[in-house]
Amino acid sequence: MVASADAKRHAARIVRRLKAAYPEVRCALNFNSPLELLIATILSAQCTDTRVNIVVKDLFRKYPDAGAYATAQRAQLERAIHSTGFFRNKAKNITGCCQKLVAEHGGHVPRDIDTLTKLPGIGRKTANVVLGTAFGISSGVVVDTHVARISKRLGMTRHTDPVKIERDLIDQLPKRQWIDFAHRMITHGRRVCAARKPKCDDCSLSDVCPRIGVATHPTKPRRRTKKPSTAR
Ligand code: SF4
Predict the structure, then answer these.
(1) Does 208 have pLDDT greater than 70?
(2) What does pTM read for this prediction?
């Protein structure tokens, strides 16, 4: 579906506001190479970036390249990443992914989305993070939980499926905006447009946001007042 002129104008306004609100943006994950970012992004599923940054300090020292992960003892790797949650699945994906990197790509992270998404456990979100942030390649728009939620509230998509949301955003945004737009939306989600209590009154997008799905008057649970006791 091609985005309407109105949808593109709406998107352009949002881009301008986000740029003004967050002029400098960067990925919150610490890394020194595309491989480190790939591993950190795998670990960041269902985990905070702060926790991942703590875990990777030792992890990156212990496993300096794809070969080290490819031949890692599964139990040791699981222990090293345990606190990021879902550690069994993450360890399996890291090992499988790095085995393929070693076998088919000389231990290097490929620079195109089709090859990246063929690696075990690597979906479009992880591939877009790595390509955009480590290589500066606009392969698509990163759709994480923040981008998905805020795009819907802003009326940029009606979908819940990340692949469909990404298609809507790609349609509405110029390619040169794809990478920074996602970084800014993620920052906005963390600071202002939170899942449970968005701070609409303090939001730089408030006059352009239709607030789709946002309760205008959140109902607080009423406290039951205790009847005064009449017993003497
Ligand atoms: S106005 Fe509210 S719902 Fe819309 S982007 Fe801002 S915080 Fe989120």
Answers:
(1) yes
(2) 0.87
